[in-house]
Amino acid sequence: MSETPMTSMSPMSPDAEPADLQREALRLDGADKLADRRDAFVLDDSPETVYLDGNSLGALPRAVPDRLAHVVAHEWGSMRIRSWTESGWWEAPERIGDRIAPLVGAAPGQVVVGDSTSVNVFKAVVGAVRMAGEERDEVLVDATTFPTDGYLAASAARLTGRTLRPVTPAEMPAAVGPRTAAVLVNHVDYRTGELHDLPGITAAAHAAGAYLIADLCHTAGALPVELDARGVDFAVGCTYKYLNGGPGSPAFLYLRREHQAAFDSPLPGWHSHRDPFGMTADYAPARDIRAGRVGTPDLLSMLALEAALEVWDGVDIGAVRDKSLALTDFFLHCVEQYAPPGRLECVTPLDHDRRGSQVSLYCEDAEPVMAELISRGIVGDHRRPGVLRFGFAPLYTSFTDVERAARVLGEVVG
Ligand SMILES: Cc1ncc(COP(=O)(O)O)c(C=O)c1O
Ligand SMILES: Nc1c(O)cccc1C(=O)C[C@H](N)C(=O)O
After folding, report:
1. What is the CATH number for 37?
2. Are both 141 and 282 inside the same structural domain?
């Protein structure tokens, strides 16, 4: 973790007893405007179990099993091929993209669902580089990135004859220049939970004439993103974390409307053709968001995602952010009270403007600590070396969960 700045946990209020913190948790739960959303999810029967890994795999929304059963039995089992037209299968990638769009601050017609985040990173980086022109010969990539983005950006750079330059998100505004074709940045660092300055990096990229590509895996469904308002050019993200789409659910790709006509996909499958059923030998791309499609989508996962997204009906993403910050603040406060001083170090910035929806705590023996936590029902995860990660999904995480998780953590590291 040498490259990660360590932040000490802030001094918080005077010592509190478990009973005080439990009372405070109940008070916060009582005032929680999103509390009713919890019932929309399948969670553990045992109150001892606390799921804090929704930043890796979100919980199952209750609506999904019945919807999937219907899709299998009726749309596939009975309707078969007719479902492409009569059950809306063909348009599902754009239709479901439009359900995600408001959560990431996009007007309709700019988000398409399909493929994996990795594949969409590749499409976006090559697409941006092709639009940037020959004289721009470098791609900036987040040096602290989730690895897959770095691997794909390197391949995209090699295929397009560009040089890949890894720089930290903080260095990006100064590093971007007239040679830069595209900048690929994570909105939140998967390891530390740090929220990067997407508006600032986007503005710097644009001032230098470069395109900005954002990876929203750790922010879509966790906080307001404002893609349209901030001028982000391209964005990708997965749907199995805070969007609760299920294991391997399709990712999304945002193509800003003004770039759609010029987008030159490196994966021009027939579903991105202007007239797919023309079945012509020549490729002619769709001039709208369909340009982001490739081939036949994974309909079962896609329709499970569509059902999962119903939990967002009527939810204000600003309220989600407020609760997320309250959850992470309360967790840090409880950990401060329960863990022996100096045993854990908070790697996640304490500043709200720089915090996503997870808390990462450094401790040398993170791996056995997390194994013990999981055996006691507190499910987070760890990332080598030494980082305990706890993800807070505001739609289903309660303050009571948070207090219990911190208390058990205190026992385990005590
Ligand atoms: C920031 C980020 N990008 C990409 C991915 C994964 O991409 P994929 O779904 O293609 O495996 C993850 C998590 O797995 C991630 O955290
Ligand atoms: N995508 C994952 C997978 O295919 C297997 C196990 C975990 C994941 C994850 O989502 C990890 C996650 N992106 C992370 O932040 O580390």
Report:
1. 3.90.1150.10
2. yes
Residues of the chain above pLDDT 90, percent: 94
pLDDT per position as a tens digit, 245-284:
999 999 999 999 999 999 999 999 999 999 999 999 999 9
Q: Which of 37, 191, 355, 389 is catalytic?
A: 389
Q: Which of 52, 53, 56 to mutate to test the pocket of ligand 2 (most atoms within 8 A of CB)?
A: 56
Q: Which residue blocks in 295-398 are alpha helix, DSSP H?
A: 299-308, 317-338, 366-375
Domain of 78 in residue numbering reads as 66-312
Q: Which one of the listed residues 162, 241, 256, 290 is annotated catalytic? A: 241
Q: Tell which one of 52, 57, 215, 236 to mutate to probe ligand 2, the residue whose CB is within 8 A of the most ligand atoms.
A: 57
Q: Domain tally for the chain?
A: 2
Counting from 1 in the atom list of ligand 2, the atom nearest the Cα of 381 is 16
Give nearest CA residue, ligand 1 atom 7.
117
pTM: 0.96
DSSP-derived secondary structure for 105-153:
T--TTSEEE-S-HHHHHHHHHHHHHHHH-TT--EEEEETT--HHHHHHH
The verdict on residue 2 lying in a domain is no
Residue 146 appears among annotated catalytic residues: yes
- Give the pLDDT confidence of 41-79 residue by residue, as tens digits: 999 888 899 999 999 999 999 999 999 999 999 999 999
Query: Is the distance from CB of 231 to CB of 206 less than 8 angstroms?
Result: yes
CB of 190 sitting under 6 A from ligand 2:
yes
